Amino acid sequence: MKPKRPPIERRASIDQVVVDRTPRSSNRSALILLRLSVGIGLVYLLASSLPDLVKNIGPDSSFDSLISQISDALSDSPSQSSPQSSPQPRSAPGPLASLQNAVINADMPIVNSTLEQLTREELNRPLNGMTALMTAASTGNAEVLRALLAHGADPNARGAHQRTALQYAAEKNRLRAAQLLLDAGADINGADNGSLTPLIMAADRNYTKLALLLIERGANVNIQNIEGWTALMDAAQAGNLQLVNALLAAGARTEARHRDGSMALDFAQRGKHQAVIRVLSKINSHTRPANRNQPAMPGKKGERQ
């Protein structure tokens, strides 16, 4: 009979099992090879720098200075032998990028000096989806806006999502910026690829003064975005009676319908805005009775969140 094998000792943990999967003999071989490689590399580096060291050794050179020179040579050699590892100098930002940064920081000296380096075409070129004028409209700095417009910035240039500078001003409620852009010829009804106009954006965010400015300047009050929202629906939903009255006076249609069939009155009823409900009920002769089983008001997707 064959002698029984001694029982296998059970490991205390999974970590020990993993470690013992590699034979110790191969670990020792790998360590020896690693030491040999390091030693050969050091000898090569020392040999390559030896001629320069010999030149620098004078009759008065001490042992400490010799050791210091060898250390310096060894520390410098890797960077010289592998030029790809040396850091590459960063290129300075172009004039357009410098202008965008200056506009954000309202740094007028840099704004003015950079504008002198740009052609009108370059000035109206979007960078990261926005022209310098759009950035200024978003930050709302009137002095920067005037400087850009004086140098030929186009108020109707298009950026990301086909937006204009006036839309960026409306998004951030920059009343003075909107006035300057309108005075410069900005398209008051310029819509992006979601059919959002500056007026719809202002009404959606309940920016009353800005919306009233746009209405006074002749904005089309009956434009609907791709989901069917009008400025009147937004004002009714918010219960903004002042804006509702201004829109109605400008000819806003109360019978316009959202894509789910809702009218401005429906949004006012859902919000229980009684004053707005009374005004809209008197004007709209085609008012449908409120349906208590009607689903909840649809959310505003995309740019209207």
Q: Return the structural class.
A: mainly alpha
CATH architectural arrangement of the domain at 194-305: Alpha Horseshoe
Please count the helical segments: 16
Q: Give the biggest beta sheet.
A: none
End-to-end CA span: 83 Å
Indicate the proportion of strand residues: under 5%
Order of helices and strands: HHHHHHHHHHHHHHHH
Report the radius of gyration as a whole number of Å: 36 Å
| Mean pLDDT metric | 79
CATH topology of the domain at 194-305, which one? Serine Threonine Protein Phosphatase 5, Tetratricopeptide repeat
CATH superfamily of the domain at 194-305: Ankyrin repeat-containing domain
- Find the count of extended strands (DSSP E, 2+ residues): 0
**Shape annotation:** elongated
Could you characterize the architecture of this molecule?
The chain has 305 residues and is an all-alpha fold. Among the domains are: 95-187, Serine Threonine Protein Phosphatase 5, Tetratricopeptide repeat (Alpha Horseshoe); 194-305, Serine Threonine Protein Phosphatase 5, Tetratricopeptide repeat, CATH 1.25.40. 54% of the residues lie in helices and 0% in strands. It contains 16 helices and no strands. It has helices at 14-19, 24-56, 63-81, 95-105, 108-115, 120-123, 132-139, 142-150, 165-171, 175-183, 198-204, 208-216, 231-238, 241-249, 264-270, 274-283. Helix 5 runs parallel beside helix 8 (142-150) and helix 9 (165-171) packs parallel to helix 11. It is elongated, with a radius of gyration of 36 Å. The N and C termini lie far apart (83 Å).
